[in-house]
Design a protein that fits this description.
By secondary structure, the chain is an alpha+beta fold. It has five helices and seven strands, in the order E-H-H-E-E-E-H-E-H-E-E-H. The chain has a seven-stranded mixed sheet, sandwiched between helices. Strand 2 and strand 3 form a beta hairpin.
């Protein structure tokens, strides 16, 4: 299987300047698992202003080779956000979400290139020891992507908004998965 080779860069998300773009991404039917289908522009602005003000949650835009926004990446401290009380956090755990926008011209390998870039970006921090994700149990496409970059499913957990598949990826598993491509 051929892999797309794209050099992504990242920049902090600007909740006001990027809200219109994000709104178009998160309300698209293909972003159903993002759970913002009915969000208004102001809802998106507010949600990302809250993230921008949160010391334990961060949002970045992934930029393509042309410098334009290509995807959304969020990362958080699972000891303080998202997974509090749902698992035993370890030092160096980092929670992660990513969203690739819907497109009329899909590029084979794009989403795998994105998740690979997101995980690599998180592991650039030497303090990051394990990445934790909690996608909806029904999101089989993302489960396959997670597995392709080294995530191992741990167990199902019940979050307030969904039943999720808790999965972990260590730096070593990620490096092995990426080297195997």
């Amino acid at each position: 299987m051929s892999t797309m080779t794209t050099a992504f860069t990242f920049r902090p998300l600007d909740p006001l300047q990027d809200a219109e773009l994000l709104h178009s991404w998160v309300t698209h039917p293909k972003a159903a698992y993002w759970m913002m289908q009915d969000a208004r522009l102001e809802d998106v602005e507010r949600a990302y202003m809250e993230i921008a003000a949160d010391a334990h949650h961060h949002a970045l835009l992934g930029l393509g080779e042309d410098g334009g926004p290509a995807f959304l990446m969020e990362y958080y401290d699972p000891a303080h956000r998202e997974l509090v009380g749902l698992y035993e956090p370890e030092p160096g755990d980092v929670g992660m979400h990513f969203l690739t926008p819907a497109t009329d011209t899909p590029v084979h390998g794009f989403t795998k290139a994105v998740i690979t870039a997101v995980v690599a970006r998180l592991f650039e921090d030497p303090a990051a020891r394990r990445i934790v994700v909690e996608p909806d149990v029904g999101n089989t496409a993302v489960h396959a992507l997670n597995e392709a970059v080294g995530f191992v499913p741990v167990r199902e957990i019940q979050k307030p908004e969904k039943k999720a598949l808790l999965s972990y990826c260590t730096r070593e598993r990620f490096e092995q998965a990426v080297a195997a491509v």
